[in-house]
Amino acid sequence: MLLWRQFVMEWRLYSRDRVAMFWTFAFPVVLLLGFGTIFRDGGGPKLSIVRVQPATPSDRDAALDKALADLHLVVQSLPKAEAEARWSKGETAAQLEPDGAGFRLRLNSYLMAQAGATAGLANQAWLVAQARLSGAPEPQRIPVQVESPGHKRSTNYASFLLPGLLGLNLVSMGLFSVGMVNVSYREKGKFRRLAVTPLPKWIFLLGQVLHRLTVTVVQAAILLLVGRLVFGIQNQGSFLDLLLIMTLGTGCFMAFGFALSGFAETSEGYAAISNLVFFPLMMLSGVYFTLDSAPSWLQHLVAGLPLAPFIRALRAVFNDGAGLAGHGLGLAIVLVWGLAAFVLAVRRFRWA
Amino acid sequence: MSGPALRIRGLRKAFPKVVAVDGVDLEVARGEVFGLLGPNGAGKTTTLEIIEGLTPADAGDIEILGLAWRDRGQEIRARIGVQLQSTSLFNKITPREALDLYGRYYPKCRTAADLLALVQLEDKADAYHITLSGGQQQRLALALALVNDPETVFLDEPTTGLDPQARRSLWDVVRRMKAEGRTVVLTTHYMDEAEALCDRLSIMDHGKVIATGTPASLIADLELPSVVELTFEEAAPDPAAFAARLGQAVERRADLWEIPTPDPKALLPRLLESAESVSVPFQQVHIRRATLEDVFLHRTGRSLRE
């Protein structure tokens, strides 16, 4: 069958380009090794605070330092000049410094997520220290715990990163590599000879989508294997569900890439167009930060985009061991986008 | 099986800066080898790419094997063979794989082994496309044009950039196509190629057909079917004085003078006498029949190679 022949030939030619193939498979692994190593032990990034050393340390200073340590804040005690130098370089998220009789917190406006959390802990520590100094009973703290939407508490932060990495890698492969390759081949006239044959465009395109789909599955398998062997990260859900989600997502974003490539004349043009789509898709997906403060029309609009339901389903299955039950609508959105993009891709596709 | 292999009426194509095809009419009979001869930029390739369905025309009617592109595009594609001016395949596909793969696109196809033998590419059958020489790539492109056993074959400058020996062997393949009963339409800017291969040809210039006929009839139609050449050891001198003395037009080329004439026998004594009297330091005298080059020159006032 023609589609099968086309698919086999795509793989055969692909496997001959050793360098490209190596990096396709190696790049996500390198990313995983990098992030995994950074967050290897414990539940996420450590919070630290820079403490400007007082000219003459008092009892209060000693009590505060003790309380900060009790709340697991990493304290770096520095003389004023050194602390200022560090602040100016932008490496400090939060700095606690003497201010008249009391203290003041300075928070780095570029690192608000860390600085905010640190400030909360520092304030609690100060309340604890004051109580200890006055001999009053220690104020009670509300216990905090970190867990996934599926109620999983992993001690291994890298395991939360893996599905996001998988998803993002797949989206960028679809939007950037696949579409770009398509445009540059067209630019070089590689498709012109095909244009004078009776080969239907949809078979040619579907052959490519299927090829990239299987590439992605292999890529994901390698990533999962490395994650498991090196960091002990386990897929909590069913591999079949994972495969289904990956297939839907890959198909959808590959079709996106092919559709977009029909709108660009040159590789340069494609770079602009794909970024135009990629960044809003990523920023507005609600996957990496919430859109609670966005206008409600935007939230409605964004609810229909395919990236968020895809990543949510992927995380739920992988990290929480959930089934697909709650993700039917989300995956249907991904499927509809994928089919629409493929139809558009076939309609817009030009051989030359 | 009705109608000619190809019929074109009023074909026009304008690009933003140039009118590439400016009202071309052509008719090619089945079984004919038909040539489009003209200098680079004459509109030959654009004409051919419109016929092949690669470039949309601005105006005009095209019928291939009695079929129109509008409603029978897939059938036309299945029945024609195409060699593009430059065939860019994937770098790491081999000739055997390419012939196999492209063959599958058609309802009927010839085997890769047959085609490789036809274009003498057996020893490169499993080499990557990118490692083939220009001539080998051109031969593979020719084999690809025959992969579907087509009734009509379109060849765009099939021998450009080839060495003389490779050109001859390519000519043999074209002659074999004709012997097998195929119609061949080719473009070329080599007049010797057009004379050697074509049953009929059209000469194109600036997007227009300026003459059509058999090579012999085009030459015979010239008023001055013979040319006397005087060759020089170095660059040819200004022929003005000599031409005045001879009373006949003289064209100066790089290292020779050309004197077109209806009757070389009568011209020769006068020519030698004139050359002596204005002391022309020529080396040799040649008398030759006019060629398609002279036809082009006569019709446009320019040389094909300019």
Task: Describe this entry's structure for a reader.
Chain A is α/β, with parallel strands linked by helices and 352 residues long. Chain A has helices at residues 2-16, 18-38, 59-70, 80-88, 112-134, 157-187, 192-195, 201-231, 239-261, 267-283, 296-303, 307-320, 328-348; strands spanning 48-52, 74-78, 94-99, 102-107. In chain A, helix 3 (59-70) links the parallel strand 1 (48-52) and strand 2 (74-78). The longest helix of chain A is centred in the middle third of the chain and has 31 residues, at 157-187. Chain B has a 6-stranded mixed β-sheet with strand order 6-7-8-3-9-10, sandwiched between helices. Chain B has a 4-stranded antiparallel β-sheet with strand order 2-1-4-5. In chain B, helix 3 packs across helix 4 (112-118). The longest helix of chain B has 16 residues, at 164-179. The radius of gyration of chain B is 23 Å and the shape is elongated. The two termini of chain B are 42 Å apart. The chains are: A alpha/beta (352), B alpha/beta (306). The A-B interface holds A 2, 5, 9, 12-13, 16-17, 188-190, 192-193, 195-199, 351-352 and B 52-54, 74, 77-78, 80, 82, 84, 86-90, 92-93, 97, 101-102, 104-107, 128, 144.
Low-confidence stretches of chain A: none
**Number of H/I helices of chain A:** 13
Taken in chain order, the helices and strands of chain B follow as EEEHEEHEHHHEHEHEEHEHEEHEH
Q: Evaluate the radius of gyration of chain A.
A: 26 Å
Number of strands of chain B: 14
Largest sheet of chain B: 6 strands, mixed
End-to-end distance of chain A, in Å? 26 Å
Q: Number of domains in the coordinates of chain A?
A: 2
Shape of chain B: elongated
Largest sheet of chain A: 4 strands, mixed
* Principal-axes shape call of chain A: elongated
**How are the strands of the largest sheet of chain B arranged?**
6-7-8-3-9-10
How do the strands of the widest beta sheet of chain A line up side by side?
A: 2-1-3-4
